[in-house]
Write a structure and sequence with these properties.
Blueprint: H1 2-24, E1 43-46, E2 57-59, E3 83-85, E4 87-88, E5 91-98, E6 104-109, E7 112-113, E8 122-123, E9 125-135, E10 141-147, E11 159-160, E12 172-180, E13 184-185, E14 196-197, E15 200-205
Parallel strand pairs: 8-13
Antiparallel strand pairs: 1-5, 2-3, 4-5, 5-12, 6-11, 6-15, 7-9, 7-14, 9-10, 9-12
Length: 207
């Protein structure tokens, strides 16, 4: 009789313990949710370049000195030459956004020609040095040059700017200077459009 008497008491005690444990459990559930995204390294002209990726043009005007028929002395200096569009003082000015830590630039150019076969003492070719200046976020500018008389300038091809590009308007400028030619210039239209050559090619890579 004593066993059956205490049996229900034992069962009741165990049931009460289970209820007590359930009541004491923490009702709050915690956790985390991760959020992520990415930005692809890129460079872009703002506003976008015209069809074909043309940034602008530099009009040099009359190339020869009428008194000698040879290249004007004023075009042979290291100052930026011509009338630039868009831009001023001989510089084609564009705004470029690059989001990488240290973009690189490749610069090349082709000499000016008019497509005419030059006779003895004449020339139908005019060389020049192309230059690009890129403003840096840390201040100052990175400069690359490419003389068409040689195989390439000191920053061609592909040289790192050494830091991020500035985000200011008009942070990239392209110009030509130090023109050269030997002989009397043949009559015609030099460069593009109308003649041959006269194309400055630039690649800015978000490295």
């Amino acid at each position: 009789m004593s066993i059956s008497k205490f049996g229900p008491i034992v069962i009741a005690t165990l049931g009460a313990l289970a209820i007590s444990q359930a009541a004491s459990a923490d009702p709050v559930v915690t956790g985390t949710v991760n959020v992520n995204g990415f930005v692809t390294a890129s460079c872009a002209v703002v506003p976008p370049a015209t069809s074909g990726g043309v940034w602008g043009s530099i009009a040099l005007g009359e190339l020869d000195d009428p008194s000698t028929g040879q290249l004007k002395a004023s075009l042979q200096t290291s100052a930026a030459q011509g009338v630039a569009t868009p831009g001023s003082n001989g510089f084609v000015t564009v705004s470029i956004i690059c989001n990488s830590a240290s973009p690189s630039v490749t610069l090349s150019a082709t000499s000016l020609g008019d497509g005419v076969t030059a006779q003895a003492g004449q020339t139908s070719r005019v060389d020049y040095t192309a230059q690009i200046d890129l403003d840096l976020a840390a201040g100052g500018a990175f400069t690359a040059t490419y003389p068409t008389t040689g195989a390439g300038g000191p920053q061609s091809p592909g040289t790192s700017l050494g830091g991020p590009l500035a985000t200011t308007t008009g942070n990239v400028r392209v110009s030509v200077h130090s023109l050269s030619a030997t002989g009397v210039l043949t009559a015609g239209t030099y460069g593009t459009p109308g003649g041959t050559g006269g194309v400055i090619s630039i690649t800015i890579t978000p490295t």
